[in-house]
Design brief:
- This is Helix-turn-helix transcriptional regulator.
- Keywords: DNA-binding.
- A hairpin with a 2-residue loop joins strand 3 and strand 4 (64-68).
- The longest helix is centred in the middle third of the chain and has 19 residues, at 155-173.
- It is globular and about 50 Å long.
- Helices cover 37% and strands 17% of the residues.
- By secondary structure, the protein is of the alpha+beta class.
- The chain has helices at residues 108-119, 134-146, 155-173, 183-201, 208-214, 219-230, 234-250; strands at 24-30, 47-55, 57-61, 64-68, 73-76, 82-85, 92-99, 126-129.
């Protein structure tokens, strides 16, 4: 069973790694374990890899929806808003792998030459993985090998090896980054600002005008972006978030004090 997703107020996920000293998360899950067959929309610095074993689901990345079928998968780059769901309540059995790119930075040249160029590639927010494309099939095979080895004494080392190979394949086949900030990247920044505003001020009286102002956009675009990224209006999002917070406050079992990997590296200086 997948553990609950822990989110900060800006929808940033606090990933609960398998071991506190190694930023690697390996799980097998069912979509039906999430309320209404829908995972919460979230983002994180980690790279996310999904491989569908049985069934199917839709995956929303920055408002763009792809159909993930059995045998297919997806790579989601760092910092992207995403979630899996099924409006038809179709079951999906899948592997979910999260790994922080800091694993691949033993020395600065690795970070500068291989890691940052891929993480910051604005032309690669995500990539659907197809089993009929040889190099993508290889990535899917690496994803599939990680879960069975999870309990091995050297699981973290084996995961590092697989992740390095996956990263090499992505780096070799990544589209060229023209370095231009595209509209999708701009919209992602806007929706994050509006979500952050809601989650910092949900106890107060908030109007649609206030939410739109937090993103420096008009009310019409505000509603359009919430529909695109969350499939709901800003007011529905606000009310559901208030409900989530009230449940958390009433539930003494809400996890706290879980060991998280603390990153102190030039790749990230997160406060």
């Amino acid at each position: 069973m997948l553990p609950p997703i822990l989110l900060n107020d800006d929808r940033f996920e606090r990933v609960r790694y398998d071991q506190p000293n190694y930023p690697i998360y390996i799980r097998r899950g069912l979509l039906s374990l999430y309320p209404d067959y829908r995972a919460p929309n979230h983002w994180h610095d980690d790279i996310e890899l999904i491989s569908v074993l049985k069934g199917q689901m839709k995956y929303n990345i920055n408002g763009e929806i792809v159909d993930l079928k059995e045998g297919h998968g997806i790579f989601v780059n760092s910092g992207q808003m995403h979630f899996g769901f099924s409006d038809e309540h179709n079951e999906c059995d899948f592997y979910c792998i999260l790994s922080h790119p800091i694993l691949l930075c033993p020395i600065p040249p690795f970070e500068n030459d291989f890691v940052l160029p891929l993480m910051q590639n604005k032309s690669l927010p995500f990539l659907e993985l197809h089993p009929h494309i040889s190099w993508q099939k290889e990535i899917l095979a690496h994803i599939g090998s990680l879960y069975p080895e999870k309990g091995h004494p050297s699981a973290s080392l084996r995961a590092l090896s697989a992740f390095a190979r996956i990263w090499a394949l992505l780096w070799e086949h990544a589209p060229e980054d023209d370095g231009k900030e595209n509209r999708q990247s701009q919209n992602l920044a806007i929706i994050k600002n509006m979500v952050t505003f809601i989650q910092k001020n949900f106890r107060k009286k908030i109007s649609l005008e206030d939410i739109a102002a937090a993103g420096a956009v008009g009310q019409s675009k505000c509603c359009k972006l919430f529909d695109q990224y969350f499939s709901q209006s800003p007011n529905v999002y606000l009310n559901r978030y208030r409900l989530e917070k009230s449940i958390c406050l009433r539930d003494p079992a809400t996890p706290d004090g879980i060991p998280f990997f603390i990153i102190s590296h030039s790749l990230y200086q997160r406060l």
